Amino acid sequence: MTNEAGILLESGTNELEIIEFEVNNNKFGINVLKVREIIQPVPLTPIPHAHPNVLGIIQLRGEVLPVISMEKALNMYPTNEESKENEKFIVAEFNQQKVVFQVHHVTQIHRISWEQIEKPSNLYSVDSSHIIGVIKRETEMLLLIDFEKIVVDINPEAGIHVAKIKSLGVRERSLKRIIAAEDSPLLRKLIHETLHAAGYEQVEFFENGQDALDYLQAISKSGKNVYDEVQLVITDIEMPQMDGHHFAKRIQENEKLSKLPVIIFSSLITDDLRHKGETVGAVEQVSKPEINELVLKIDQHIL
């Protein structure tokens, strides 16, 4: 199983394909676009003093890759051996890195709309949660996992760091207005701190593309000049209700919004997927966590 089916999805349709997998008989999902392949388990080489969630490393086609136990990362161990009879390794790629996730079973692929994915309730999800979305099906629910956070928990250097902005020097951008669509509360906070440090003090955040689009459309319907109110848009790709590709497409199709530069800032920026952002009119696509690159692109394109 590879990600070829996901790549065939037309850009901007607000749909995605989810690979369903199980850990201790609980059902979870991962975006097909993050998956390079799914393989049978191979012998591991343990790493002394490694993070408890890292089982070891494997060699796959000449690359040395870390193997992360989803059972441990989700704090769902110990388990009985029967649940591991169909164990699989999910080879994933995001944030410009490859990681292998050990799961107990891979079942099927679902094609769904982002509108079907609900934001986790505050009653059972906090900033530190690994759950980024809930998919309700007829007889069950699938939980979408924040794989980026799992990796950052193991290696904090893989995340966004405000201190990196200091290398760009002093700038004055306080009059420029930006809106940003990002579903992760933690990343909203980090991006806000980073852009503020870069001189961009007026940034309005939204939890998904739908809310951000509603905001832009409300400005345009009010009779105000949108370009006086907003000078640039930043968007993630994976978001409940409306993803970043569909959001960018809706901006491009609206004659009152179409001149707004849209920068996609996502873990899903790879050579194989870059064409999707180009199709929906994004002026730039920056891979997380390259926050320096994001700021430089904002400097270049902001109206």
From TrEMBL:
GO terms for biological process: chemotaxis; phosphorelay signal transduction system. The modification 4-aspartylphosphate is found at D236. Signal peptide: none annotated. Residues 15-156 form the CheW-like domain. Residues 177-303 form the Response regulatory domain. Keywords: Phosphoprotein. It holds the Pfam family CheW. This is Chemotaxis protein CheV. It comes from Lederbergia lenta. The gene is cheV.
